[in-house]
Structures are given as structure tokens and as C-alpha cells.
């Protein structure tokens, strides 16, 4: 029998199983857009000296405007591909939101809570898998599993149980949908465009509206990722358009063609590739390239590669020279990550409790990258002293057989005041996290073994670990490690990126 908390968590994660992605016949309208490059920004004789900058300008190069429309036209197809991810995520979430609302409405109608409905209509109807069924599953999927059956048995049986519950949940969803009045008023552009108004109504379920804001609550990480990808695409495109304009303007100034300009400033200044250069490249990269220096054809390939590399270097140098001399303004703004409200109450922490900067780290003790990142965070703690506080939260991934038990063990060590010392041992022994190993590490720290073993064997802190995992899922996390600095997620897992995030957070705090 599941307790109420487990049922509610089940309702949030699995409400109604397999998602049928929304399909739509809407297509993007192909509009002719004017490329605003050329003389659109140039001052003519007799004009006012104050040139008004159009609101849609993304860059100005020596008085010539590059418009947003011009950039959009060049990247339209690529943006369309990127937006498919957001379309799928929003379609998925809308489907689940409709099901969740129907469940809530049904609970009100019956005057019971949703947990009771799930217990009666889903969980009670599911037959628990047998050990024989788990063993059959193990043999069918052995090539994709890591570990012996006895070590994986509980995990496999839980998986089979969830699969059966998902199937029953889907049946319940289809039943509720068949009796409901559901009007969907969504179109492709609404679900694919990150700039869509948040109050746009997507569906009406038995008279209750569902807006874009309602479904985007859980999708902020996916939305931001799409925004980042589109921004990077825009930035690269604008840079190329700026370079093209600079070549065009410089060629006009010299009264020559662009090929003649590039020949004079790039081709003629390229370093000549010698036999010594070819041999040096081969010796440095022979373990990484499929080539034989003794073969003329392979020497030719290396020569071609080095020539292309040298051409790119010379062109980049000339481009930078033109940029330095140009009157250049770029108005593209990178998207900012949203600030997440992440609870740090009753969590392992170290550093100044009143520090201005709070770092929250979601950890899987079986994840090697977590070990490396944790070392970086320890170094940053030393560097910033009492300005920074570090908080750890559990996110054991299901593909790691021992991560869940290790997280419970870490909490058991925290109960005795040795959390940070204990997880340091876990990170040093990531391939030995079985129950006996976890108990042995407690002995190494001199912990009360009776107290520790009981906490581990009874899974005393299982609810705490599960709550942390639910928080990670709420935030849209799907991998470890993941770090937040003052509520902003840090994308890159490098020392420099973490330090930059801390400095940015420090400046934001100082401006308040």
C-alpha cells in the first residue's frame, strides 16, 4: 500500500502514461522579407545628421544597418528545426496538463482526493511482478544491463511495476477524456515560438482554460535551451553578415572587387606550406588521423588541410583588422536564465550560512563527472571563503544501480555529523558502492555502525532522497551534476564557468 505522499508524487510524474504528441496541419507562412543591407543606413546629402536607428536593427556597420528580418531570413529553416524540440515538449506537457486537470475535476466530483482515485483506479488494479517475470526481463535485456540479476532484481521489479501502473493510468486517462468536453485552440506557431504571449489560451477542459503559462511552468530549462540555440545561430549569422559588409565596404573604398581584395589581403599573406610543416603535422597527429606520411595521396590531404587552415587564419586576421577600424555596434542580447527558487532547508551545507552567494549542487554519487565537479566546487569554496555557501542535494539517476542506496548512506552519515567526509570517500570509490562497501566506509570514519547500518538497511532517509529527486525533476534536470548559483543554472561544468557564474551573481547582488 502506497502512502499519500507517494501517490501524489506518482500523480505528478506518471499521470496517464504514454503521451500522444499533438499533431497539427499548420505550416509556417513563407513571407518575402527585404534584406536591409546596402544603403539603407547611409546618410545622403542634405539629410539630418541624427540617423534614427530602426527598432529592428541587430547591428550597424559603418552606418549600414543589418535588420532582424535579414537575419531571420537566413536562419529560418535552422530555427524551424530547433523549434521542433519546443513544439514536442509543449505538446507533451499540454497533453499531461489536460489529463491532470481531468483528474482534479473527477476528484472534486467524487469528493475525494486524487490520490484515492489513483489508488482505486490504477494501483489496486496492478498485479505485482513476480521474480520469474523479473528474471525473464533480465535475460531479454541482459546486454543492456550492468550487473548480476540479484543486484538488479529490485530495480527491475520496480520498473515492471511502473510499466503496469503506466498502462492502467493511460486507460483511466482515456476514460476521463471520453466523458469530457475538451476544446483545443492551439496552433503550431503558439507551441513552437518562445515569444508567444504566456496568457494565450491553448485548451478549454470542461469550461476551465489552460494557458501557455500553465504548461511552461515545468518547461523553463527546455525553453531556455531553445533560446540559447537560436541566439547562438543569430550571433554566428550576424558575425558573418558583418564580415561580408566589411569586405564589401573595403572593396568599394579601394575601387576593386571583393575577390581582388581577398587575394591582396588574405591569399598573398598566407604562409607557404613546406615539407617540414607536413611532417611536423603528421608526427604530432599520427595517432589521431588515418594517414600515412609515406603515401603521396595522404601527404596531399595533409597539405590541403594545412592550406585551408592557413587561409582561415589569414582571413580571420584581416577581418579582425577591419573590425577594429570600423564603427561597429551590435544589439543582440543573450538570453538570461530564469532564477529558480530552490529550497536549501534541511540540506547538507558548508560555508557561511549568511553568505551572499549560494551554490546548489545536485549529485549522483556514482557519476564520475560529479566527483570532478565537486573537487572544483571545493576549490572555489577555498577561494571565495565566507562569501560562498555550498548546498548538496541528491539526484540519483535510475541507470546507476547503487546511486540511490549511496544517497541514503550519505544522509545516514550526515545524521552523525560526517556528511562531507563520507561523500569524499564515496567519490573516491565510485565503483564500489554496494551495501557492504557503504558500511565499511562508515567504519573508516569511526561512525556508530549500529546506528548507521540500521538507517541504511531500513532506508530511513528514503523520503528525503526521493523529495530531492522530485525537486530535480521539477527543475527539468535529466543529468548530473547540475549546479545553480543563486538560483541560476550553470551550463558549462568548468572551473572558469563556475567562477564566472559566481562573479555574475556577486555583481547582481551588489546592484540590488
TrEMBL record:
Swiss-Prot/TrEMBL keywords: Disulfide bond, Oxidoreductase, Redox-active center, Signal
Q: Which SUPFAM superfamilies match?
A: Thioredoxin-like, Triger factor/SurA peptide-binding domain-like
A GO MF term: oxidoreductase activity
Record has Disulfide bond as a keyword: yes
Looking at the UniProt entry, the stretches that span the membrane are: none
Asked if the keyword Oxidoreductase belongs to this entry, the reply reads yes
User: Cross-referenced Gene3D superfamilies, in alphabetical order?
Assistant: Glutaredoxin, Porin chaperone SurA, peptide-binding domain
Q: Which domain of life is it from?
A: Bacteria
Q: InterPro entries, from UniProt?
A: Thioredoxin-like_fold, Thioredoxin-like_sf, Thioredoxin_domain, Trigger_fact/SurA_dom_sf
> Ranges for the Thioredoxin domain?
328-507
Q: Which positions carry the signal peptide feature in this UniProt record?
A: 1-22
The UniProt family comment states: Belongs to the thioredoxin family. DsbA subfamily.
Q: Which PANTHER family match?
A: DISULFIDE BOND FORMATION PROTEIN D, GLUTATHIONE S-TRANSFERASE KAPPA
Protein name (Swiss-Prot/TrEMBL): Putative DSBA oxidoreductase
> What species is this protein from?
Candidatus Jettenia caeni
Amino acid at each position: 500500500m502506497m502512502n499519500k505522499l507517494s501517490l501524489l508524487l506518482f500523480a505528478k510524474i506518471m499521470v496517464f502514461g504514454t503521451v500522444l504528441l499533438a499533431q497539427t496541419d499548420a505550416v509556417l507562412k513563407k513571407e518575402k522579407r527585404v534584406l536591409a543591407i546596402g544603403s539603407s543606413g547611409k546618410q545622403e546629402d542634405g539629410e539630418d545628421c541624427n540617423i534614427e536607428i530602426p527598432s529592428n536593427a541587430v547591428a550597424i556597420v559603418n552606418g549600414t544597418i543589418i535588420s532582424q528580418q535579414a537575419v531571420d531570413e537566413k536562419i529560418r529553416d535552422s530555427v524551424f528545426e530547433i523549434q521542433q524540440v519546443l513544439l514536442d515538449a509543449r505538446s507533451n506537457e499540454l497533453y499531461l496538463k489536460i489529463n491532470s486537470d481531468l483528474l482534479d475535476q473527477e476528484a472534486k466530483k467524487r469528493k475525494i482526493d486524487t490520490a484515492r482515485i489513483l489508488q482505486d483506479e490504477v494501483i489496486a488494479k496492478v498485479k505485482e511482478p513476480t521474480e520469474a517475470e523479473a528474471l525473464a526481463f533480465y535475460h531479454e535485456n541482459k546486454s543492456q544491463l550492468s550487473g548480476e540479476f540479484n543486484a538488479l532484481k529490485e530495480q527491475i521489479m520496480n520498473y515492471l511495476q511502473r510499466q503496469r501502473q503506466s498502462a492502467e493510468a493511460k486507460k483511466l486517462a482515456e476514460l476521463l477524456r471520453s466523458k469530457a468536453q475538451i476544446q483545443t485552440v492551439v496552433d503550431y506557431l503558439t507551441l513552437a515560438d518562445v515569444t508567444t504571449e504566456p496568457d494565450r489560451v491553448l485548451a478549454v477542459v470542461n469550461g476551465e482554460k489552460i494557458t501557455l503559462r500553465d504548461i511552461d511552468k515545468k518547461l523553463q530549462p527546455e525553453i531556455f535551451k531553445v533560446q540559447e540555440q537560436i541566439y547562438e545561430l543569430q550571433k554566428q549569422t550576424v558575425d558573418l553578415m558583418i564580415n561580408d559588409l566589411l569586405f564589401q565596404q573595403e572593396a568599394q573604398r579601394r575601387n576593386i572587387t571583393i575577390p581582388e581584395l581577398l587575394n591582396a589581403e588574405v591569399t598573398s599573406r598566407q604562409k607557404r606550406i613546406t615539407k617540414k610543416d607536413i611532417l611536423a603535422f603528421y608526427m604530432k597527429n599520427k595517432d589521431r588521423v588515418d594517414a600515412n606520411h609515406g603515401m603521396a595521396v595522404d601527404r596531399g590531404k595533409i597539405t590541403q588541410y594545412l592550406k585551408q587552415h592557413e587561409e582561415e587564419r589569414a582571413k580571420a586576421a584581416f577581418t579582425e583588422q577591419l573590425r577594429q577600424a570600423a564603427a561597429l555596434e551590435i544589439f543582440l542580447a543573450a538570453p538570461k536564465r530564469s532564477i529558480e527558487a530552490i529550497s536549501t532547508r534541511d540540506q547538507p551545507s558548508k560555508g557561511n550560512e549568511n553568505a551572499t552567494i549560494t551554490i546548489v549542487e545536485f549529485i549522483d554519487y556514482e557519476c564520475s563527472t560529479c566527483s570532478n565537479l565537486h573537487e572544483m566546487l571545493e576549490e572555489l569554496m577555498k577561494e571565495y571563503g565566507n562569501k560562498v555557501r555550498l548546498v548538496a542535494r541528491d539526484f540519483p539517476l535510475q541507470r546507476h544501480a547503487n546511486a540511490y542506496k549511496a544517497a541514503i548512506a550519505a544522509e545516514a552519515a550526515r545524521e552523525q555529523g560526517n556528511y562531507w567526509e563520507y561523500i569524499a570517500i564515496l567519490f573516491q570509490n565510485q565503483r564500489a558502492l554496494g551495501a557492504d562497501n557503504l558500511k565499511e566506509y562508515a567504519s573508516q570514519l569511526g561512525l556508530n555502525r549500529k546506528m548507521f547500518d540500521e538507517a541504511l538497511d531500513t532506508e530511513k532517509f528514503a523520503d528525503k532522497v526521493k523529495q530531492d529527486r522530485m525537486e530535480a525533476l521539477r527543475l527539468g534536470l535529466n543529468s548530473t551534476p547540475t549546479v545553480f548559483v543563486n538560483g541560476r543554472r550553470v551550463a558549462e561544468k568548468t572551473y572558469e564557468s563556475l567562477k564566472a557564474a559566481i562573479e555574475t551573481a556577486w555583481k547582481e547582488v551588489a546592484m540590488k
